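Ops channel
N.P.: pipeline sanity check, posting one input/output pair.
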């Protein structure tokens, strides 16, 4: 998404049958390699760069890939200044910025700092140790690559891995764990699973776009922490019978034309065309464990120094939501954006 950076330009007309080769071993070595090009990852690269270190950012998707996959018309719950990174002001005519405004802002910040972005590069593994890491990548066409760095910062977020329910029919192609746009679901029967912000927003937008919406939530009511302008809206739609809701209920099976719901009053079989399972997401613990990072407790908190954010693996730092393990509701852009300064300060001290 940063087409002004020569490192982010992809070859769009490759050999139609490229032959995989061994990883090329680059001569250059960076001071800090950041995995994850979200706001926190960008902040890590910027702060390292401002401190005098050479940094590079790698992501398997586009710039701010998770944010890009948020609902198209999403409005943030926070103010523009709390999303700022790199001491660059976030101008917005709105008290609460939109997804599109945020994407535009982070593109502008990346351009301002001329960040070295290696987008659409999937990390397969990391070898080496403190002072000499090698990240092995593969691009969209299966071609291997490698990048060397003295230190690593992991800011991989959590949005790429949904929490699956493990029920029959969850693998049907009518089931989605991400909601983007309501238009395709006009005049269809849609079940939204969940009761928090993402589920409430999806249910409201789908209903307003002509879908027949049923909300299924295991809790007793819409939670109090749902955005203050969303909560009364969804509650009123339910009260008026415009959106049907089953509380203290669970979807137990999904079939091609129906959904089976276990309610506190018995089983219900609902006519259904599409399901949005807004059941949350989790960090890629397997990826972190493969690099030797340890976790503690039921919440799978990664072992790291709270001051420097260096993990139990020397030279590997953690940033953003992964610092909180499975407690994904504790760290957001608003507080994760400062992790870059902690990491840059730690690098400078060494």
């Amino acid at each position: 998404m940063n087409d002004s950076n020569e490192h982010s330009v992809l070859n769009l007309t490759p050999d139609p049958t490229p032959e995989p080769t061994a990883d090329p071993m680059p001569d250059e070595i960076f001071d800090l390699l950041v995995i994850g090009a979200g706001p926190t990852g960008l902040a890590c690269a910027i702060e390292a760069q401002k401190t005098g270190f050479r940094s590079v950012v790698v992501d398997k998707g586009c710039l701010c890939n998770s944010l890009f996959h948020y609902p198209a018309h999403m409005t943030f719950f926070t103010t523009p200044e709390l999303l700022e990174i790199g001491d660059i002001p976030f101008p917005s005519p709105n008290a609460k910025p939109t997804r599109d405004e945020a994407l535009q802002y982070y593109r502008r910040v990346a351009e301002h700092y001329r960040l070295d972005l290696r987008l659409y590069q999937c990390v397969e593994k990391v070898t080496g140790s403190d002072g000499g890491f090698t990240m092995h990548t593969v691009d969209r066409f299966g071609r291997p690559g490698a990048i060397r760095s003295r230190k690593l910062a992991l800011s991989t977020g959590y949005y790429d891995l949904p929490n699956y329910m493990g029920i029959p029919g969850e693998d049907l192609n009518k089931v989605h764990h991400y909601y983007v746009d309501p238009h395709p679901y006009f005049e269809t029967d849609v079940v939204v699973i969940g009761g928090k912000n993402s589920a409430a927003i999806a249910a409201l937008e789908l209903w307003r776009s002509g879908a027949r919406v049923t909300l299924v939530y295991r809790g007793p009511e819409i939670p109090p922490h749902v955005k203050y302008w969303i909560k009364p809206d969804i509650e009123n739609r339910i009260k008026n019978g415009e959106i049907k809701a089953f509380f203290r209920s669970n979807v137990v099976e999904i079939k091609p034309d129906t959904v089976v719901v276990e309610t506190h009053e018995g089983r219900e079989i609902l006519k259904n065309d599409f399901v949005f399972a807004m059941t949350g997401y989790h960090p890629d613990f397997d990826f972190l464990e493969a690099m030797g990072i340890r976790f503690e407790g039921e919440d799978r908190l990664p072992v790291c120094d709270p001051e420097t954010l260096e993990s139990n693996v020397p030279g590997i730092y953690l940033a953003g939501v992964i610092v909180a393990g499975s407690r994904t509701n504790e760290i957001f852009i608003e507080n994760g954006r400062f992790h870059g300064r902690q990491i840059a300060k730690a690098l400078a001290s060494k």
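N.P.: looks fine end to end. The chain is about 20% helix and 25% strand.
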